[in-house]
Design brief:
Shape: globular
Structural class: alpha/beta
CATH topology: Rossmann fold
Number of strands: 7
CATH superfamily: P-loop containing nucleotide triphosphate hydrolases
Order of helices and strands: EHEHEEEHEHHEHH
Oligomer: single chain
CATH architecture: 3-Layer(aba) Sandwich
Radius of gyration: 16 Å
Distance between the termini: 22 Å
Number of helices: 7
Helix content: 25-40%
Largest sheet: 5 strands, parallel
Length: about 200
């Protein structure tokens, strides 16, 4: 029997693939990994030509802080995590995520696959999933969501959306290479709610 009070489901997938919806539908506690983005004025933030932040580059995200939060949740059942405002590209506060005894939680975000190897090396009980679907469906859901939430300007969203549409298959392929298992919505939900522990190594 594991000495860890909770296991983590690393839920990756392209932007707009439905990760947040799936995590909410599961009913288990959720760690939003997109809250670990770097601030716009961070000197280590990668830039696009013209100076805008490259929010689709893994280096735009604080992987060390995300892993530390996952370790805290797996070992202690609670963690303080940032609150990030995508519209202003900055952290606006801190919140506390308490698992309240839940034996599983979801850590979801577009960069979740980037830390599968680190979670495996730490020996944490984990599964790693890449949620995928049709690129055209993903692109539409992403655009509607981003407009509804006022994430960025419409011209920016159109440029980014076209780029992500063209590169979605490569994004999914990379996430599978990093150790995620490909799943549709139904399969992913079943894996999240499955009893017992699945290690990241077994899921790879």
């Amino acid at each position: 029997m594991s000495s860890f009070p909770a296991r983590v489901i690393l839920l990756a997938g392209p932007s707009g693939s439905g990760k947040t919806t799936l995590a909410a539908r599961s009913g288990v506690p959720v760690l939003g990994l997109d809250h670990f983005y770097k601030d716009e004025d961070d000197p280590t933030l990668p830039r696009l030509p013209g100076g805008a932040g490259d929010w689709d580059a893994p280096a735009s995200w604080n992987a060390d802080a995300a892993v530390a939060a996952i370790v805290a949740l797996c070992t202690r059942g609670a963690a303080d995590t940032p609150v990030y405002d995508i519209a202003t590209s900055s952290a606006t506060g801190v919140t506390r995520l308490d698992l309240d005894g839940s034996p599983v939680f979801v850590a979801e975000g577009i960069f979740a696959a980037e830390i599968v190897g680190r979670v495996r090396e730490l020996g944490l009980p984990a599964d790693a999933i890449c949620l995928r679907g049709r690129p055209s469906t993903t692109a539409w859901h992403r655009f509607v969501r981003d407009i509804r939430e006022g994430r960025k300007s419409v011209p920016f969203l159109l440029r980014r959306g076209w780029h992500l549409y063209r590169t979605e298959r490569a994004i999914v392929a990379r996430q599978l290479q990093l150790g995620c298992s490909p799943c549709d919505f139904t399969e992913a939900l079943a894996r999240i709610l499955a009893p017992g522990e699945v290690t990241a190594a077994q899921a790879a």
